[in-house]
Specification:
This protein has 84 residues and is mainly alpha-helical. It has one domain. Helices cover 61% and strands 7% of the residues. It has a two-stranded antiparallel sheet. Helix 1 packs across helix 2. The radius of gyration is 12 Å and the shape is globular.
C-alpha cells in the first residue's frame, strides 16, 4: 500500500479483491476490538508498515483466527517497531 496525500493506492492491482478485502477486514475488526473509529484503526494499522506487513504475509495470516489476528496487530501497534 502506498499513501499519497491521504489517498491509498494498491500496488499492481490485478482485479482480485482478496487482499484488499482482508485488509479491510483487519481494519474493521481492529476498530471493534479496540472500540475506536475506523479512521483511528486505519491510522494505527497503516503506521509503521503494519498494513504492508498484513498484505505481504496474507497467505499465512488469512488462515488465522480473528482473535489471533487482533492480538498480533495489537502487539505490532503497541511495539511501534517499524516493519520492513
Amino acid at each position: 500500500m502506498i499513501m499519497d496525500n491521504g489517498k491509498i493506492y494498491v500496488r499492481d492491482y490485478t482485479g482480485d479483491d482478496t487482499i484488499p478485502a482482508f485488509l479491510t477486514f483487519c481494519v474493521e475488526q481492529y476498530k471493534n476490538y479496540k472500540g475506536i473509529s475506523g479512521q483511528e484503526a486505519f491510522e494505527l494499522i497503516s503506521t509503521n508498515g503494519i498494513l504492508d506487513y498484513l498484505e505481504e504475509h496474507y497467505e499465512a495470516l488469512h488462515l488465522e483466527s480473528r482473535q489471533w489476528l487482533m492480538k498480533t496487530i495489537d502487539e505490532l501497534v503497541e511495539s511501534k517497531v517499524l516493519i520492513s
